[in-house]
Amino acid sequence: MKKRVVVTGLGAITPVGNSVDTFWESIKAGKSGIGEITAFDTEAYKVHIAGEVKGFDPLDCMDKKEARRMSRFSQLAIAATKEAIEHSKINISEIDPDRIGVIIGSGIGGLGTMEIQEQQLLSKGPNKVSPLLIPMIIANMAAGNIAIRFGVKGICKSVVSACASSTHSVGDAFRAIQYGDADVIIAGGTESTIVPLGLAGFIKLNALSMNTDPLNASRPFDKNRDGFVMGEGAGTLVLEELEHAKRRGATIFAEVMGYGSTCDAYHITASHPEGDGATRAMKLAMKDAGIEPEDVSYINAHGTSTQINDEVETIAIKRALGEHAYRVPISSTKSMVGHLLGGAGAVELIACIKSIEEQYIHPTTGYTTPDEVCDLDYVPHEGRKADVGYVLSNSIGFGGHNATVCIQPYR
């Protein structure tokens, strides 16, 4: 018999706050973390704005030696995990470390470090490349560094599925606990690619918004949307087997009920035009949770603000939920933080859990002009009180990756 899986801890580092509480209060209020890029000079670029994490100091959660040995994406993941563990009040030293795991996704890994070391190679030769180059850039090192830092010896892996990475991470953690492979798993994702090469690459893909107004560049589902805004950050969740959580007297914030994972097998960047894979991911998550479309009370959309993605996701929601799609509130966290790529799904799932906790749905900001194709309830401008029960959180990634996680209040 499959075990029940609950969420007992949350941690977040985002463009609107470096803790779960500041992140949530900001997006509840419709506050945007998107602004002019400060990390490097963007004069030569067509895009000058992004959702940067602000005021982050890795020395708040690690010493200088540790910080020097990690790329920024790993540092962000450590900080988010430290908050999640403290939030869960779990004492890892009192638990069998072989029964605690880590599954942390990242779409790209240490791109900034790679860029810096490439410059070292070209300007000073191969002998000046850092001996830590490889362990700093590979995408699995966020998970590895978390395991080392917190003494976790169970399942330890990294999911790399572009923008679906951290939703897949949470889903895979859910499955592992369900089937008894672990009692506790730290799951989520992290990304930090607001660097010259990352910005240039997404510009050349014609994926980014060219809007120069930070408050209106990310405008999911709006008729005049023209691309996504890059973001960075990390989100981690402590997932725990229900009886294990109850034995230690843990506070339970939500229960994970279902997971769906599919592939479009269609195109390297574009989603299937009829939303085939995204539709099936939502249907699988609902089937896994044992619910009908009419039971869904809120959807946190992938909602990137690109023309094709938002249209396709809207089509997929209609196909998955039928007529009930018109009655379900939908919002996009990316409207305020930008697109955190491999970190997006976990941060958005944290928003879903806070929605359950406070029975409140955050708004989709930047939405001013309705689109005849995107014609659902996207909670524009202002958040609202709501009866939040079963929630779907969607992620869609380059390569055709789709993932949906279903959660509900713990009962």
Quick tags:
ten-stranded mixed beta sheet; two-stranded antiparallel ribbon; 411 residues; alpha/beta; Peroxisomal Thiolase, Chain A, domain 1; 2 domains; globular; single chain
Order of helices and strands: EHEEHHEHHHEHEHEHEHEHEHHEEEE
**Biggest sheet, open or closed, and with what strands and sense?**
10 strands, mixed
The helix/strand class is alpha/beta
Q: How many helical elements?
A: 13
Low-confidence stretches: none
Q: Give the CA-CA distance, first to last residue.
A: 19 Å
Find the CATH superfamily of the largest domain: Thiolase/Chalcone synthase
Indicate the CATH class of the largest domain. Alpha Beta
Cα gyration radius (Å): 20 Å
Number of domain units: 2
| Arithmetic mean of pLDDT | 97
The CATH topology annotation of the largest domain reads as: Peroxisomal Thiolase, Chain A, domain 1
Q: Give the strand order, joined by hyphens, for the main sheet.
A: 5-4-6-7-1-8-14-13-9-10
Tell me roughly what share of residues is in helical segments.
25-40%
Given the C-alpha coordinates, what overall shape results?
Answer: globular
**Content of β-strand:** 15-25%
Number of strands: 14
CATH architectural arrangement of the largest domain: 3-Layer(aba) Sandwich
Topology (elements, then pairings):
Layout: E1 5-13, H1 20-28, E2 35-36, E3 49-50, H2 64-68, H3 72-88, E4 100-105, H4 111-124, H5 133-137, H6 141-150, E5 156-157, H7 165-178, E6 184-191, H8 196-204, E7 233-241, H9 242-247, E8 254-263, H10 276-289, E9 296-300, H11 307-321, E10 330-331, H12 334-337, H13 344-358, E11 360-361, E12 384-385, E13 390-397, E14 401-408
Parallel strand pairs: 4-5, 4-6, 9-10, 9-13
Antiparallel strand pairs: 1-7, 1-8, 2-3, 6-7, 8-14, 11-12, 13-14
